[in-house]
TrEMBL record:
One of its GO terms (cellular component) is extracellular region. It is found in: Secreted. PANTHER family: ACROSIN-RELATED, HYALIN. Residues 1-19 form the signal peptide. The keyword DNA repair does not apply. Transmembrane segments: none annotated. GO terms for molecular function: serine-type endopeptidase activity. It holds the Pfam family Trypsin. This is Peptidase S1 domain-containing protein. The keyword Hydrolase applies. GO terms for biological process: proteolysis. SUPFAM superfamilies: Trypsin-like serine proteases (SSF50494). Keywords: Disulfide bond, Hydrolase, Protease, Secreted, Serine protease, Signal, Zymogen.
Amino acid sequence: MKMLLKLFLCLLGVGLCASQKVNIESRIINGNDAKKCEFPWMAFIHSRVREIGCGGSIIDSTHILTAAHCVLYPNKTSEPSANLDVYVGASALEDAKKLQVKTVTPHEKYSFKTNENDVAILTLASPITFNDCTKQIPLANATTKLTSTDCTIMGWGATTDSEKDPGTDDLKYATVLILNDKVCQQYYGYTLPSSIFCARGKGGSDACYGDSGGPLVCKESSGKYFVYGVVSSGYECDSIAGFYMKVSSFIPWIQSKISN
């Protein structure tokens, strides 16, 4: 995984990249506009102090699944919960409901160097009231099988990889193709850990700065969505395939945190 540094790894949540300026805008490159209530499990996480945004998934009435690097400082200190707001219930952020965070729980073994274990749980100060536009989404487990490698990512922000793009408050989504491990190895020159997979945008679409922590969702044969991955990192935007945390690898950890 040390090869990540040689590839100028960009952390999508904070736009931290060795080869370019820090950029905190969230983007789904070349994405489509989400319809009202189309992705009711989606959450937007905003740090009022650092002025950065990340995505997240509603996994039950009091917990949001996101990426660890979204809520950690470089010294691995957690972002204080008082700094964070979570928005749910609308595709347009101006219509979303703002919620307070009670506790921030990043994975204890997350590594900024290798980006392994890039998951975190936010516990909300009060339960979410579910409705047509606000719902929880199930997580993939060890027995989950993909019926298709075409899956979906989503996030808020600009639609192009340009610093001049003013951005938007409307949720965007895009289709990505999950790649097998051999293809990922060809891209990067090493074998990924079993808890990480890579996916590439289709038709020029991709995740980018600020979309970290958001879900990569796939459909069951019944048509219902589930979270298969968490957006983590990549080599710039709309280029080489990006990295995602494989949710099924973290089910025991997630269950231990939400049960507490």
